[in-house]
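User: Okay, second chain of the day. Same drill as before: sequence in, structure tokens out.
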Amino acid sequence: MNKIFRQWVVPLFFITVGAVIAAFALEEFLVPFTVLDGGIVGVSMIISQLSGLPLGVLTIVLNIPFVLLGFKRLGMRFLVKAIYAMVIFSVFLSVFKDMNAVTDKEILVVAFGGVLLGIGVGLILRYGGCLDGTEIVAMFLSKNTEFSVGQIVLFFNIIIYGVAGFLFGPDRALYSLLTYFVTSKVIDIVENGMEQGKSVMIITDHGKDIADKIYSQLGRTCTQMEGKGMVSNGKKTVLYCVITRVEVPAIKKIINDADVSAFMTISDVSEIVGNHIKRKKGIERRATVRK
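Assistant: Same drill. Structure tokens below.
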């Protein structure tokens, strides 16, 4: 019961809170002034403005292919949480649609809309959900390119804001870009780092099995070290790897399924010098990590 509560009840509660806050930020701050979010949500906002189609429906429909793509890598738990987050988000977009905007001052729209959106999205990401498929695509592209996930997401968003500038005027694009930076910074605070990697240290008796699963499921290589238990006096395998924040729930599941007695710590990485640890065309690339 405690495991179910910890893995599902608590995360779904905070995902719900996050989705409601994000929907409120969009409909009560950003949408009335055509200030766009990034990613698939931003594309949905553009299409909604031009066609009149419901924003919530467009967000779900356009995200479906990317969620299925993420399922292949991150598993059923990710799929359930992502779909749940998107459904709640869509429902509350409809709930807030007919309410009056909170303010008509565009600087307040950018500031408070960006902050609230960052809080909402940060909560969703922190508890294993997802509102936007852009980051999933960026994760896959990052595996086979020299660019980080954050760089790819920023590139996508610049294109979206360029289209918004062409369709709605350059001031809308500039306000949207400013909102994106505000939102990103708040996500950093709420979710412990949009760009930060996570260093994982695992102490286990089944090092090879766990390392193989991490590599096959996440594409991350591990550094293996030998340790010795001070109490048990037995040999232990110590694995070290660096992953992205989106992959944290997946690696927890790998550890829990492979070795319930394993000990694992997850830490923030403040800087990565070189390329993120990942496989590329059969070649393992390593990074120098500063913690």
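Residues 197-290 form a domain with the Alpha-Beta Plaits fold (CATH 3.30.70.120).

User: Thanks, on to the next one.
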